[in-house]
Amino acid sequence: MAGNEPVREWLRGLPRADRKAIGDDIRRVEFRWPVGMPIARPLGQGLHEVRTHLPSGRTARVIFNVSVSHRMILLHGFMKTTPQTPKGELDLASERKRAHERGE
After folding, report:
1. Count of CB atoms within 10 A of residue 48's CB?
2. Domain-located, residue 53
3. Number of domains comprising the chain
4. Is 78 left (phi over 0), alpha (psi -120 to 50) or beta?
5. Digit-coded pLDDT (tens) for 42-95
6. By residue range, what is the domain housing residue 66?
7. pLDDT digits (tens, 9 = 90+) for 7-53
8. Alpha carbon 66 to chain centroid distance?
9. Is 91 inside a domain boundary?
10. CA 32 to chain centre
11. Distance of alpha carbon 37 from alpha carbon 50, whole angstroms
């Protein structure tokens, strides 16, 4: 996974105001960790989500984990369209977490 930045690539496709809002929330979580609701929420299995309500009216989520060295690892970003986080989004984040832990 080294050199692969899926969250950064996802962010680049968003409008500037949305990118700024998501970036501000990621920064809050990174520098004030541990942070709880409404900005961050645990998902289980070492995964957490940054929760951002965007100026465009949409809702974004960035799934991350905190590494053994206490670094915030951004694993997956997506637009929330259902009340519950879809299993496919969690599965993708979990796979990226495992790949990161293996050093890929």
Report:
1. 23
2. yes
3. 1
4. beta
5. 999 999 999 999 988 999 999 999 988 889 999 999 999 998 999 999 999 999
6. 6-102
7. 999 999 999 999 999 999 999 999 998 888 999 999 999 999 999 99
8. 11
9. yes
10. 16
11. 9
